[in-house]
Write a structure and sequence with these properties.
It is a single chain. The two termini are 30 Å apart. It is built from 4 helices and 15 strands. Strands 4, 5, 8, 9, 10, 11 and 12 form a 7-stranded antiparallel beta sheet that branches. A hairpin with a 2-residue loop joins strand 8 and strand 9. The chain has 214 residues and is an alpha+beta fold.
Length: 214
């Protein structure tokens, strides 16, 4: 699937050498991802016949009164899983259902949604743009949070950290390219930095490139 993108080049800096490589600035490319495109991917994951599920403890509640786990849903408690761009931030209500062996209460089967925020970060060593999902608050249907306490929010975050985070938005092969020049030698585009901005319903990724002579 092709991504909507626009590009412009900005020259900056001088040629530099790093660990035997010869690199020079190449410019900046702007990749635009819209809210609708990202939501189609999110809905495709949540709408699987058997959506992803994650244990809320290392043993998944083995030996307890019920399995402690959550399962992603496309919709729950009247809230639909969807990514939203607002005030320069990326947020998403994520619908789920699950069960939890609550202390002093026992097995609770619940349904609701999590108020989450997506923080983007560029890993230069792996040449990947990642998103880290942070759970800000849980909303449970027909179960007061006072009954399960703040510990459930932490367990959900731990489950996301161990099974989901970080989420790759762009991988190395999408960020770079190799251009053959002569036999045994070539030029390679390498991302030096990726910064992002949310403008309206668009996520704009500003990718700063350099050309590396191999």
């Amino acid at each position: 699937m092709s991504l909507p993108a626009s590009a412009r080049v900005k020259r900056r800096g001088v040629v530099k050498a790093v660990r035997g490589e010869r690199a020079s600035p190449a410019g900046e490319v702007v990749v635009v991802l819209n809210e609708e495109f990202l939501n189609s991917l999110l809905q495709a994951v949540a709408s699987q016949p058997e959506p992803p599920s994650f244990p809320l403890s290392k043993d998944g509640g083995a030996g307890g009164k019920c399995a402690s786990q959550i399962q992603l849903l496309s919709e729950a408690a009247g809230t639909r899983t969807a990514m939203r761009f607002s005030d320069g931030r990326i947020t998403a209500p994520v619908a789920f259902r699950g069960s939890y062996d609550a202390p002093l209460v026992g097995c609770l089967n619940f349904e609701g949604w999590a108020d989450t925020a997506f923080d983007l970060e560029f890993d230069e060593s792996k040449q990947a743009l990642n998103a880290r999902i942070n759970v800000r608050e849980l909303k449970l249907k027909n179960i007061p949070m006072s009954l399960v306490g703040p510990g459930l929010t932490g367990l959900v975050q731990d489950a996301i950290d161990s099974r989901v985070n970080p989420v790759e938005i762009l991988r190395a092969e999408q960020l770079g390219a190799r251009l053959p020049v002569t036999r045994g030698k070539g030029l390679r585009l390498r991302a030096r930095d990726v910064r992002h901005e949310v403008v309206g319903s668009e996520l704009r990724l500003h990718i700063i490139y350099e050309i590396v002579q191999e």
